[in-house]
# Entry
Amino acid sequence: MSRRLPRQALILGAVLVAVLVVLVARRLDTGGPPTAGSGYSTGTGAASSPSSQPAARATDAAAEPPGVLPLAVTRAVLNPAVTDANLNRTVCTGTKKYRPPVSYTDRVKRIELSTPVGAFGRITDPRDGRVYQVPGYQGYAGLGPADAGRVELDHFLPLSDGGDGYDPANLWPEIGGTANAPLTGADGKKANSRVKDLLEDYVYRQLCPHGSGRRHLTLAQAQALYEPDWYASYVHLGRPGGD
# Structure
C-alpha cells in the first residue's frame, strides 16, 4: 500500500501537466479577442446578407454646433408596422401610407416654434384621437415663430427607415440654412436639412435596393445611423451624394 501511493501521485501530476499544456496551446492559438467589423458595406458588390453588427457611428454629438442636431427631447420613434421581415411590403414600396397630412405637420411646426424650450404643447392624432405632447423649440438655435419658412419639419428617424409619422417626439424643426446664414457641422461643412436628405436617400438605397440588388443594411443598422449624431454618420460614410 505504501509503495503504490507515490506512483499514483506521479500519474496524477503528469495528467495535470498535460492538461495545462493543452490549455496554454489553445490560448496562444486564438491570437487574442476578435475585432468587430464595421457592420455595413459601402462597396458596389452585392452583399450575401446584411451584417448582424450595428453600423459604426460617432457618439460625440456635443461637438456639433447648435441647430445641426435636435434637442434631446426629440428621439427616434419607431413605427411598429415596419420590421426587417416585412420591408418589401412596407417602406420599400413607398412611405405615403405612413405620412401624415400637411395640415397636421404644419400645426406641429407652429406649436414647436412658438413653444419655449423646456415647455410642451399638445396635438391630437387625427387617426385615433390620441393626444401627444409637442416639444418646444422656441429659442433653440435662435428659432422662433417667424422662422417657419426657413425650417423643415423633419422626421428625425425617417419614415423610410421605420420612423413614426405622427408622434411629435420624432418631429423637429430642422434648419435649412441660407446663403447669409449657412448651417455647418463640427467639420465646417454644410450640415443643413438638404444634407440630411442626402443621408436618408443613401440609407434607403442600402436598405431597399430595387431590381436585382441585395440589402447592405438591416433595419436596426439603418436606424442606428441617426442617433446620436446623424451628421457624423454622414461624414463617416463619405458624404454620399455631397461634395
Notes: The two ends are 88 Å apart (CA to CA). The CA atoms of residues 123 and 132 lie 5 Å apart. The helical segments are 4-30, 102-114, 193-207, 219-224, 230-236.
